[in-house]
Amino acid sequence: MSQSPAELACVYAALILHDDGVEITADKISALVKAANVEVEPFWAGLFAKALEGKDVGALISNIGSASAAPAAAAPAAAAAAPAEEKKEEKKDDSDSDDSDVGMGGLFD
Q1: Which of 25, 27, 26, 32 is nearest to 9 (CA)?
Q2: Contact 29, 10 (CB under 8 A)
Q3: Over its length of 109 residues, how does the chain's per-residue pLDDT go in tens digits?
Q4: At a CB cut-off of 8 Å and minimum separation 6, what does 61 contact?
Q5: How far apart are CA 60 and CA 90, in angstroms?
Q6: Can you give the pLDDT at residue 27?
C-alpha cells in the first residue's frame, strides 16, 4: 500500500509539529505543506488533524514496532508447533499401516 505525496506531506507536517511541541491543527499542517511547495487537497490537513486530535502522538510513534512484534513473535511459535503435530500424525500412520503382505508381489520391497 503506497501513500500519495499528499498523504506523506501531511504525515511529515504532523510529525514536525509534534516534534516542535506545537498543537497539530489543520491550519498548521496546511501551512507547513504549503511552505514545502506540495499541493495537497484541503481535506487532507483536516483529516490528519482530526485523526490526531487528543491522541498522544509520541505514544503512537513508540508503539509502531510493538504492535507488529507480537504477531511476528507468535508466528514462529505456531510454525514450531505445526511440525511437532505432523510428526505425531506420521507416527500414527506408520503404526497403523503394518500390512506387509498386501499382495504387491514384492514390487516395493
Answers
A1: 32
A2: yes
A3: 677 888 999 999 999 999 999 999 999 999 999 999 999 998 999 999 999 999 888 888 888 777 554 555 545 544 554 555 555 555 555 555 555 555 666 666 5
A4: 15, 18
A5: 47
A6: 95
Q: What secondary structure letter does DSSP report for 103?
A: S
100: amino acid identity, one letter:
S
Q: With beta carbons less than 8 A apart as the criterion, state whether 25 and 49 touch.
A: yes
- What is the radius of gyration, based on Cα positions, of the chain? 29
Answer yes or no: are the C-beta atoms of 43 and 4 closer than 8 Å.
no
Q: pTM for the whole thing? A: 0.56
- The three grid cell numbers given for residue 1, joined into one nine-digit string: 500500500
In the chain, the amino acid numbered 16 is I
Which amino acid, residue 53?
E
* E strands present in 49-100: none
